[in-house]
Amino acid sequence: MVHNKIDHKFTYPQLAWDQKENYQRKFFYSLLPISCIKLSFFFKKLPNVDDDHFQMHYNHVHSDLTVASKNFNVCKIQRYVQNYQTPEMKEKVKSLGMELLDYDACSSIWVRSWEDWEKFSTSDEYAKGRVSIGTMIFDGMLMVS
Question: pTM value?
Answer without folding.
Answer: 0.70
